[in-house]
Amino acid sequence: PRRPSGGQSACARDLEDRMTAFYEKQYDVLLATNIIESGIDVPSANTMIVHRSDMFGLAQLYQIRGRIGRSKIRAYAYLTYQGNQRLSETSMKRLEVIGQLDTLGAGFQLASHDMDIRGAGNLVGEQQSGHIKEVGVELYQQMLEEAVAAARAGVNNETINDMKAAQEWSPNINLGTSIMIPETYVQDLSVRMGLYRRIANIDESAEIESFAAEMIDRFGSLPDEVENLLQLITVKRLCKQANIASIDAGPKGVIMAFYKNEPHNPAALMQYLQAKAGTVKLRPDQKLFFPRGWSSTDQRVKGVRNILKELISL
């Protein structure tokens, strides 16, 4: 016999009764939604069929598959999809990855593969989809030291946060390019993560050149994604010097916003806008728009760098 579970019509009490019955082996099959992906432990469950597995995320599939094989009984998970439907490259890669994650402690590998599939997000900005710097004990220790120092100095947290924000703000940069270290370039996961951490701490132009030379020496010619990543670090450094908080660039131009809408030299900026009339516009929201015609990523990056250097010189 089988028993359905999940869905809008099932109340909490009813769900509990159904799960208890399944746990006690009153039913052989449990038909459920992805509500079972966490918090369910049925040691006797050893077979799972996931309908339309291509509709689930990588982390979801990993969690759902983890509901079986929780005892000494060998377990099997069947991930199905519509045979007459062509899967997207991302969906196919997700299914390939989940099939490879069959060892204990595969969660870290899962996170890395997920980042490779979806991209590293806004790597050098404040709005991260995956922060590169380690956060565990080291971050806790840093926060503890800051709190103790603030208490001893008699300074409240708000003042400390304002001071830190002024020193540590990071520009949000979107150049419409893929930025990552591909698995095909650096296969070892731990090495890739170590390289990401080093990149996140690069500040000087000489460090970028040295890092690029090391990468070429160790792994061969840089792929486009890594080239873009290193160029983005240079743009980030220029943004800090020009007091630019955000950049959104595309084939038709770039929009830049000053940090807290405060240029270093407002008078010089107004003269610059007058001299560059037609090639730069000050929008009502105080952001600068530079209309351009950039047909390639390389042109876009070089164009943004040149504009930032002009703003720095004001």
In the CATH hierarchy, the architecture of the largest domain is Alpha-Beta Complex
Order of SSEs? EHEEHEHHHHEHHHEEHEEH
Characterize the main sheet: 5 strands, mixed
Helix percentage range:
40-55%
Provide the CATH topology of the largest domain: Aspartate Aminotransferase, domain 1
Describe this structure in words.
This protein has 314 residues and is α/β, with parallel strands linked by helices. The chain is elongated. It has helices at 12-23, 58-65, 89-100, 107-118, 137-153, 157-168, 189-200, 205-219, 224-242, 266-275, 297-312, and strands at residues 2-5, 29-32, 47-50, 76-79, 172-174, 244-250, 253-258, 281-282, 288-291. It has two domains: 33-115, 3-Layer(aba) Sandwich (Rossmann fold), CATH 3.40.50.300; 137-312, Alpha-Beta Complex (Aspartate Aminotransferase, domain 1), CATH 3.90.1150.50. The termini are far apart. The protein is built from eleven helices and nine strands.
